[in-house]
Amino acid sequence: AKGAKTKRRKMGRLLTIELENFKSYAGHQVVGPLPNGAGKSNLMDAIAFVLGVKSRNLRSHKLGDLVFRADGKAPAKRRASVKLVYKVDEGEVEDLKAGEELHFMRTIAASGVGSYRINDVEVTWEAYDKRLHQIGVLTKARNFLVFQGDVESVASKSAKELTTFIEQISGSEDFRADYEELKNQKEKAEENTIFSLQKKKGYAAEKKQVREQKEEADRFKDKIEQLADVQVQYFLFQLFHIHKEMSGHQESIEEFEEARGETQAREVKAEASLKTSKKAHAKLNQAFTASEKDVGKVRAELDKMEPPQIKLVAEVKSLQKKIVEDEKAASKIARDQQDLSERIEGIAEDIATLEEAEGELDKTAKEAKSGSKKTDLQMDQGKKEEYDGLKAEAQKKTAADRSQLESLVRQHKSDENSLAQLEGDLADLTAKLEQDKERLKKLEERHKTITAADGSTSPTRTPLAQLGGDLADLTAKLEQDKERLKKLEERHKTITAAAGEAKAQGRNVEKELQEVQGKEREDGLKRKELESELEEQEEKMAECLETLKRLFPGVKGRLLDLCKPVQRKYDKAVTVAAGRHMDAIVVDTQQTGYDCIQYMREHRVGVASFIPLQGLKTKEVNERLRSLSANCKLCLDVMSFAPEYKAAVMYAVENTVVCETYDDAREICFRRNEKVKAVSLDGGVISKAGTMTGGNASRDAGGGSRWDGQAAAELKAKRDKILSELGKLDTQSGRRGADHDEASELGTKAAQLKTKEQYMLKDLKVTAEKVAGLRKACEEEKKQASHCALEVKKVQPQLAEREAGISKVQNSIKLKEDSTFSSFSRSIGVASIREFEEGQLKALQEAASGRRDIREQKAKLEAQLQYENTKDFASPLAKITKRVEQTKIKLSMSEERQTSLAKEETLARAKLRTCEEKRNEAKNGLDEKEIEVKALQAERTEGSNERVQLTKKITAEETSVEQLRGKLHTVLQKAKVEEVNLPMVPGEKGQVGNHYGSETASSQQGGSQSHGAGSEATGSTHFSQTQNSAVRKDQADAERVDFAKLVKNRDAEPKHVEKLKKEFEGGIGELRSEIELMQPNMKAAERFEDVSERHKSSADTFDAAREEARDATALFNEVKQKRHDLFMGCFTHVSESLQAIYRDLTKSSKHPLGGNAYLSLDDSEEPYLGGIKYNAMPPMKRFRDMDQLSGGEKTVASLALLFAIHSFRPAPFFVMDEVDAALDNVNVKKVCNYIKQRSRDFQCIVISLKDLFYEQADSLVGICRDVATDSSRTLTLDLEQFDA
Question: What is residue 683's DSSP assignment?
């Protein structure tokens, strides 16, 4: 390295440090002498302080904190100071000799005010820093100390921070400001040069262009003269042939005028006759219309009678059916009452019989007791005592078995009771199942009878079968009447295709309207309350919306009107999903919305919300929601709307999901945890937050679709329009006559049959529902019976097993008793003791058992007797009898009303026939008069058509003449606009072109505005405006044109005129194209000299700018080179020294070659603008970034870099604060050895807590606490005296 080859600069040494009230050092203390050795961190702060380091690096917030204050006295009167005594080496400082001392002192008061002194003379910071720089101490670069924790931060510096560090050490940073300033000057000079060059090139190009324009202007003048000659011939040719063609059309107009006068006279005569006939026709038509209204009124009355009649027929049948059913019920109750009396008598007899049997059993028990007493008397007293003792002994031996036996018997009785209960339940279910099967069979037979509708009239068939037969008969008759009605309608359609088409449309619309109205009727009760509240508000809002549409074109309409569900089942879900936005008004922009709000506020027409399409922010469609489930769809997908309104619809419904049922919505929101708003088809809502809402809002209480009203209104309008058209067509075709009456009557009958059919179908539906319900009940009863049977099968094996256990225990008891009583039994002469005991007890037990059975049976009979006595048949029988009487009264009243309505219907039909006869008479007279009117209309129309044709011909000729006049005027105007001088007849002053020019000038003075010389201004006057003075002047000018100057094509035929005209236009077009392509600049000659002068001036400016740029570049390159040389000199030295130092710090016996560390530049051309990367590879380790090294490896790498940098521009002393904190003993020893080797080059002061450093030091400075003053004390030990 360059630094290594040069002679080492001589450096002095740091002798002592004098401290006064600095931090923990109280009073005046001297630390030193300071050869290589170790100290404490506060001493590190004192050295940094005296050498000008800022307070933030001294572990304090401000300089006043450095004053000693541990003794509790007021620090305001104290000051702290640190003095550094430096011994100068030979040639180190110019004005000092070797061995002389330099005293650097820095003082600080408690207020933070400080001062700098050199050799006890106060100086400025700049002088202080300059003197430090002379001895090699760089305060800014801090090349003389390393603070605690700075070691690892050196290795972690960024590439740019390392570059800045090298610049400070190398001194290249001093050229940074000059570098930036000269660089800006150089770039500005280059920009000026480029600008001057471009300006020079522009003037050169402009000079060349002006020269070419000057030459082209001369050629342009020649072409203009040639074009003027061709244009004169062209306009003379057109004017000549236009005059010739106008003369022919004028002769044709005179011939057609004469023929039109004759035709018009005939037309006036026919018009007078037609007027008289129309008056008579109007009177007849009024009479016919009046009769038609009378027929309509009578038919309306008949239509009103029909529903009450149908209702009365059904009511009579229903009442008759109720009477029959009530009479059957009364008969059944009477029979049940008789059966009850017989059952009560039988129960009383059974109770008496049981009481007799109970008395006989009591008698038998008494005899058994008396017999046992006799037997006891025959047994002597000794045997009696022996029996009692043995009995007690046997009781003890069988106590456990008897307890077990009692438990088994108790469980056995419980199971028997359960089995009896299950068998009873099974029997009840079986009986009920048989009853339901019987009912089901009857209902199925009834359903089959209704469905078959075989029309049987047998008196024995059921009422339901009768209804089925009636339904079949009515259906067949209805089909026959429909067929007849169809034939009549086909015959009517032949009258006019338009009437038939209108009728078909009317039926379709009426059908749709009926469906919608049916839906509205279902929801009518709920909707009435809302309509009464909202009707007035809705009307006002509808009127306001129409007004807004007229005033502001950007208003599209309500969202409700712009979209609709794809199916009716989604109506309620879509309404709930959109909520209040459904009534919002969609507009194009926000400004339109503001205008509408202002209008509504001024006129006070209510409140509305607006959705602007432009700038509307909506959420994106979540495509994942489309695949949640087959029963769940996005609300957006079930709505139909125009693409332009998608943003408004998306804003209203967002990502709402529509589910088939509320369970599907709960599945999505709660089980799958989807954070979406879910709406079911019945209007239930689950919000994103999980809240659940059911039912309908007040405005949706109708339950129907919000689109039903809209659809109904459209269908009504469509129906009214079609009926109006149909009425017009019927009037024109002479009405329908008798066929219409017959069709109307058949339609009425068909409606009656249809109503009857609906009643039958409803009965059929009810029967089918009952059949389904009974089938379901039977299935449930079968399941319950199967369950009971399984329980019975489970209990029966348990009973058998428990009986076996009871038998086993009883045998065990018997064996033990026989063993105990064996000798006693032999002595009294019995086989076993039970034979003796049974002889006496058997009779008593049998009597007790019989008595118990009799009492149980007697209790059951008494309970049954009590239950039967509570039954009351008299009250139900009385109610049924009363109901039958009331029903008969209602039946009588209904039959009377039915008879009355029948009479009214007969009278109405008679009145209808009378009105129809009058109408037919009026129609016949109207038809005859219509024929007469049509004949007169045809005559008038024929004359009118002839007159019109002649008028059209005259108009066509006049139009042709007018077009030719306009064409002539256009040609003259065009000649004037194009400034073509047409030749005039000799003797007139001036020429046409000049005269048109004066006319145009006078016109402009009168208030009109010219269109300019480049446009064809022909719209202000026309030859048909004969009263216009300008038009008359144009006609006079056209007459004065001298056609003698027309050179050729005077006798050209009309068919060749256009061809010749195109040839003229082609020649003119070519000349104009050449002239247009030339684009001359008539002032080019004047501009040429001016441009030449500017071109010369720009060339001089460019030369001056180029010279200025050359000078700026030279100055910049000079500073750049100096900065580069300083930086690279330092970088090269540090890079080469780093490898050697790192190798020395990392080599060992195992790794004699050590590790490798190197620096690399990002920008080799201008390294101070880029970064420096530092990489270190410890021995036997692969390449890794510095951040991935361990703490010890980072410390070694950092120390190597610090020592390398220090070697470039070494300070006379190097202070390090606990740089060995992260090192193990091996690395500490290596660092100690390296510092020991370098100690001859510079003075090294180390603050450390490691023993290895102590061993290698020349002297030690110990820091301890002075308890008396509560401050720090120093102890100095010179180790060199022990080396000897």
Answer: S
